[in-house]
Write a structure and sequence with these properties.
This protein has 212 residues and is of the alpha+beta class. The protein has a domain of 126 residues. 53% of the residues lie in helices and 13% in strands. It is built from five helices and four strands, in the order H-E-E-H-H-H-H-E-E. It has a two-stranded antiparallel sheet. Strand 3 and strand 4 form a beta hairpin. Helix 2 packs antiparallel against helix 5 and helix 4 packs antiparallel against helix 5. The longest helix has 40 residues. The radius of gyration is 39 Å and the shape is elongated.
């Protein structure tokens, strides 16, 4: 009985060994899904594609609405941050400058109309060109307040426009960063010429081929 068992083991061992090796080869290392080092990259087969974040444009716009330039920093467009801050800062400075002059001229004009001569634009101490006379007439004060009011409103409008443009830029830039620019995308435009076999005249046209 023992000789028969040994003989059967010797006969089936060469058959079982290749099967065991094949079972081990069915799970190669290449079959294990590879995790890319960059979390923004996904691997589909052998092709690496950018991972799309649908909330990125909204977040960039929200950050720029809270603090101008923050959305550009979120998009990693750091060179745009000083441009955005500088443009909006100049607009705010222009608004404050013209508003301050508007308030001064308006206050002086109102006091002048009320019969007072103690405003800052009246030469009370006699140090002006004509002692005891106003440096600015009533008409000059009225023209000044209207001009500075107009310049103040214009500066406010430009500042608000720059603020809105800052939000739009962050939103659009976040969209464009996720735009699909894979190698398999392509647009081919070629002119073509063919002859009509019926009338014998050439036909001209343009062939457009889109690959995706």
């Amino acid at each position: 009985m023992s000789k028969t068992l040994v003989l059967l083991c010797l006969l089936f061992f060469p058959v079982l060994s290749p099967l065991a090796q094949e079972g081990q080869q069915e799970s190669p290392k290449d079959s294990v899904p590879q995790i890319p080092e960059n979390p923004d990259i996904i691997v589909e087969g052998k092709v690496e594609k950018k991972r799309i974040n649908p909330l990125a444009p909204s977040r960039a716009a929200f950050y720029s609405a809270i603090l101008p330039g923050l959305g550009q920093a979120y998009n990693k467009r750091y060179w745009k941050v000083p441009i955005v801050i500088g443009a909006i800062g100049v607009g705010i400075y222009a608004y404050n400058y013209n508003n301050d002059l508007y308030v001064r001229f308006r206050t002086a004009f109102k006091r002048r109309r009320a019969g007072f001569t103690d405003d800052e634009f009246y030469d009370v101490n006699g140090s002006g060109i004509v002692p005891g006379s106003p440096d600015f007439s009533d008409d000059a004060l009225q023209d000044g307040q209207e001009r500075y009011q107009r310049d103040r409103d214009l500066a406010l409008f430009i500042t608000l426009a720059l603020y809105a443009l800052n939000i739009i830029d962050a939103n659009v830039d976040a969209h464009l960063k996720q735009f699909n620019v894979d190698d398999d995308l392509g647009l081919d435009i070629k002119p073509y010429l063919e002859y009509n076999p019926i009338i014998g005249n050439p036909n001209y046209g343009v062939a457009i081929t889109i690959n995706f």
